[in-house]
Amino acid sequence: MQYNTQQKRMPLPEYGRSIQNMVNHALTIEDRAERQRCANTIINIMGNMFPHLRDVPDFKHKLWDHLAIMANFQLDIDYPYEIIRKDNLNTKPESIPYPSTKIRYRHYGRTLEVLIKKAIEFPEGDEKQNLIALICNHMKKDYMAWNKDTVDDRKISDDLTELSDGKLQMTDSIVRLMAERIDLNYRPKVNNQNNRNNNRNNKRKY
């Protein structure tokens, strides 16, 4: 079946031609009470088309807005909500300014630079040392994702010094903390279920 391209363009085609025809019929009803009942019926049918959205806040309000749009704001009924104004349909949203903050190394990203700045402000101690180790490990991960190759600790050390303006250093103790964190995060987990099964098997032997 071919679509009739000569028909009038629908304001909201997602509801289909049948719903639009119902709205057009409602516009021809002279009796106001009957016109109101027809509008309520159309809203119920529209809502049934999207049952997964029934619990979404303002869903019913949006349906009445859509009814007004499909009627070209000419349907004289009592709307249960304050419907959208016709002159608001074509208003353009305010442009969002593009962030102008420069990033020294894009593969590290802005978030890492923020972390480094926070680490600089930390008082000296174990917490700061662990934060620096976390940052260095994250830098290695980001670098390898970007470069698809191994990375030398000296490169990470140089980049950390540059990004922190010389206020953070990748010392030997930091390198040890980095290794400890990797070992802790990637240590294989013990399968407790297998252990329980092994214990049962050992008891049966005795």
TrEMBL record:
Region Disordered: start-end pairs: 186-206
InterPro entries cross-referenced by the UniProt entry: DUF4290
Compositional bias ranges of the Low complexity kind: 187-200
Domain of life assignment: Bacteria
Name listed for the protein in its UniProt record: DUF4290 domain-containing protein
